[in-house]
Amino acid sequence: MRILKSRTSLLELIVLIVTLAICYPTVFIKSANANKSTDTPVYSYKVINTYPHSTDSFTQGLVFDEGTLYESTGLNGQSAVKIVDLETGKTVKSYDIADKYFGEGITVVGNKIIQLTWRAKKGFVYDKKTLKLLRTFKYDTQGWGITYDGKYIIMSDGSDVLYFMDPRTFKVKGTLDVYHENGKVGKLNELEYIDGEIYANIWGEEKIARINPKTGQVTAWIDLSGLLSKEDKKNRIDVLNGIAYDAENKRLYVTGKLWPKIFEIEVTEKN
């Protein structure tokens, strides 16, 4: 009877695990080796091209889709979602949000643009071509960065946690703790989903984290120190923020808040 009971318990456990996997596919669990000490590789960069960027744009989100560059800007009274001409840096089309909102990250889902706001816990959905406001939605934390992996919207709130949301209902379906060999990685900001990894600006730092979306582990760092020249830094600038990826042509673009340039970069081995 003891053996039969043991087998029954094991069977019940297997059924429970399978049920959870089916019903809650994005409830992520770290492995037992999550905090095991390893040396995370650090990469550098090579500048391929530079493009003008408006020094009035307090960049909060950047995304490249089907040949078009979209940008979200922040600051109360200056927040907007824009279509930007990459070659000239000029705004082709813009939608200004109400002064009470502080614009944050954006992403493209199908024919729509999704934009977050900082502390208002309110997001906006726009038509991708016209920037016409289609609807709003709510969430329960601060809005920082946002990206789309083809199935879920992934959102950051400035902590070490990423939120996976249904792109239709905006309900949170799972969360992911981000870590490296020394523990948690906080201040996750602007996000971009690139070739199966999440790229994240770390607020206040000149580096990008590459994150495994299944485990939360930082698989590599991209050190962007020195990207902006000393001459450019003499002008009014803010932190590095803004990652956009041209998936069709495999081109990676980065910029910062109030920066005068957008950089197309190639990730390289660090010397």
Structural commentary:
This protein has 271 residues and is mainly β. The chain has a single domain (42-269), classed as Neuraminidase (6 Propeller). The protein contains two helices and 22 strands. An eight-stranded mixed beta sheet has the order 16-17-18-19-1-22-21-20, with no helix packed on it. It has a four-stranded antiparallel beta sheet with strand order 2-3-4-5, with no helix packed on it. It has a four-stranded antiparallel beta sheet with strand order 6-7-8-9, with no helix packed on it. A hairpin with a 2-residue loop joins strand 16 (188-194) and strand 17 (197-202). The termini are far apart.
Question: What attributes characterize this protein structure?
Answer:
Neuraminidase; 4-stranded antiparallel sheet; 8-stranded mixed sheet; 271 residues; globular; mainly beta; single chain; disordered N terminus
Count the strands? 22
Taken from the alpha-carbon principal axes, the silhouette is: globular
- What's the number of helices? 2
Percent in helix: under 10%
Strand order of the largest sheet: 16-17-18-19-1-22-21-20
Largest sheet: 8 strands, mixed
- Which stretches are low in confidence, meaning pLDDT under 50 for 5 or more residues running? 1-8, 13-37
Q: Which secondary structure elements does this structure contain, and how are they paired or packed?
A:
Layout: H1 2-23, E1 42-52, E2 59-65, E3 68-73, E4 80-84, E5 91-96, E6 103-109, E7 112-117, E8 122-127, E9 133-138, E10 146-148, E11 153-156, E12 161-165, E13 172-177, E14 179-180, E15 183-184, E16 188-194, E17 197-202, E18 207-211, E19 218-223, H2 230-233, E20 240-246, E21 251-256, E22 261-269
Parallel strand pairs: 1-19
Antiparallel strand pairs: 1-22, 2-3, 3-4, 4-5, 6-7, 7-8, 8-9, 10-11, 11-12, 12-13, 14-15, 16-17, 17-18, 18-19, 20-21, 21-22
